[in-house]
Batch of 3 targets.
Target 1
Amino acid sequence: MSLVNVFKSSLFKTTTLTAAINATETPPQRIAQLGLFEEQGVPTTSVVIERKNSRLDIAPVLPRGADPTPMKDPTRQGVSLVIPHVPVRDRLMADELQDVREFGSEDQLVGIEAARDEKLQTMDDTLTVTEEYHRLGAIQGLILDEDGSVLLDLYDEFEVTEPAAIEIDVTREGWTIGDAGLLRAQFSGLKTQMRQILGNKPVRGIWAPCGDALYDQVANHPEVIDTYRATMEAKDLRGDPSESFTYGGVIWEKYPGYGDVEMDADECRFIPMGVPGLFISRYAPANWFSAVNRKGLPRYAMATLDPTGEKWIDLEGQTNGLHICTRPEVLIPGRLK
């Protein structure tokens, strides 16, 4: 089969490429691993997020036959948000396929498919890191673009105020066993505070992704070490500071970022876990005729031949995902005092 015919074969059809890029085995980033965000495809390029300002109240006991307690209608707030469009492109040159053969195989198509998949994998890696970057912004209420400009300020969009930061005092000088509990006391009321903000909805746990400096200061604080003393956890804590640990009802974790995808060194963010609808991802369709008015997928890919149909083929990958916290006022920051 000639290369021109290969480029026009099913290997490079949009449906085949889209299925292939969605099937790539890019390791999920940390926030994706936790499953914080509820993912769903939508057939539109924007979504309306409806916030219900409701509380979970206790109903009174009444005599049999009495009129039931009427339910209060929650006030509703609708916020329309545009779903970001993130396309990337790579080029597969005809020269890259010169004499290509899959090792141990005479089947040229296998080798060409491998070259194609290598390009798709690179694009998916980039889109996966971008998605993590947006989600890292979402759990802090401020989603940034690659150049650091603001894509979405969730506090402004939902007209709420960012909660005051907890100034974490990690002073060690002069610390004695009699001071045990002073560190814990600084964040002991977090879960109650979060539940109140969420209208008494239960919070299953609290995750605190940390910058390097804050994590090290908390993990190596004598109060924490003393709590874990003579346990395997204490050994792990002292020997491998990259591991997470639980203390004071909070899962502390040095966020495993790199480059721009990282927490500020002296900061953390206290994130409620197990709250339905708190963190959501909504995927719009690609800006292609084949995807119009269909529910969006996490990834898309398509191929375009050069005008001569002889020299190269462009592969485009894209994601169209909106990743947000619907109640950003519950995202409590922490920083070293």
Target 2
Amino acid sequence: MERSLPLFLESIGYSAWERVFQRPEGYPYYHWLHTLEGEGRFELLGQAVRLTRGQGVLLTPFAPHSYYPASDRWSTIYITFGGAAAEAIMEALHMNSSTIYEEGEGPSFGTLFNDLFRRIERTPSHSDIDVSTDLYYFLMQLRKFGMLNHEPSLSQYYQRLAPIVGWMEEHLADNIGLPEIAAHAQVGIHALHELFQQAFDMSPYSYFIQLRIREAKKIILQHPERALREVAEQTGFNDVSHFVATFRKKEGITPGKYRDLHQTVDQAAVTERRGWSETVGEERVEEAREE
């Protein structure tokens, strides 16, 4: 077990007859436990909850807890893990808290576990690095398909937002904002904001700007000779200076530098002849100011 890896697997297994555990000091690693058959009682953060088939619990290190069978037979599956980047990864996935999970519409917890277990057990040459990668994939799938506090899973949020995102992609060049997006979605602005925060961890308008910048990058790569003002207009920016400032804020470089980094020698020659700096004086001044 290589503890210097971002993630390492401390233990993994199946308990046909789960026992009574009392851990007032918690467990030193992240601990995933889900019910395969029967029912258990789990005491966490001063509350006792049922853990039935299709439910699991993710515990952070040293979280006080206890659990015991609540049926004649309580069968569980467990995974414990840590790693040099475990806390940072769990924070990034918004999973760094002790929480009860429920299965959503995607793969069952048992399926996710079996996929992980088979990859580890059936490959003799499976290295610690491979295990670390597989464990990360398991966590990503759990984050995507697991439901927290009876709320929809990420996958379900994505499905609900897919038509809205598709409409946004079709109207990148139009002069629209949050009210128009909410009107098309037929939901209130607050409700729309909550949906996007849950699915993408950003506001709907920030996501719309991200789509516009992505489209601008695509145009720049496919048509490096195209004037900067034209690229801005095709992606919904009526003001070139606003486009340049937004592009730089999102990408860390100006559109001109982005183009220069990705174009070929032949494309550079064409661009030089037509020249972004020769299109409009405002564009030349803004590029010089930003760079």
Target 3
Amino acid sequence: DNGGGDTAVARPIMGRFITETKPYARMRRREGRGLSDFWTETVEPRGPFTYTRPVVVLTNHWSGSMAEGFPMGMRGLGRATIVGTPMMGLGAAVFPITLDRTGLKAQYSAEPVYDMQNRPRWLMQPDIVVLDGADILAAGRRVLAAATA
């Protein structure tokens, strides 16, 4: 279970897995009733070493926000296989809003996120889908073992 985190933390972690600056996500911003043009987010290499062996990122239905962005980014960088259940399907830059007529409070994503093929993050599926209730860690270990054999 992971409710998310900060892009400023996740991006440098992703940087440990690449040797050159690479794109990892496409973004748009809500503008009035529509959306802005796309822009591309990139990751820069980081640190004195690069981890080059196979990587598996585990997800479940409680993975949200940057806990969805990290697996999507690692997939976009060509550096990971995602194993688990579908995730929460959240956007980015979440802000509160109070509805005028009812006073109800809600939250909305001001910046929808897309993969490098412009597919929305909220529709992203793991590469290896594990059924609810199954052992995601065991499935991930099997995938990693096969990739390193």
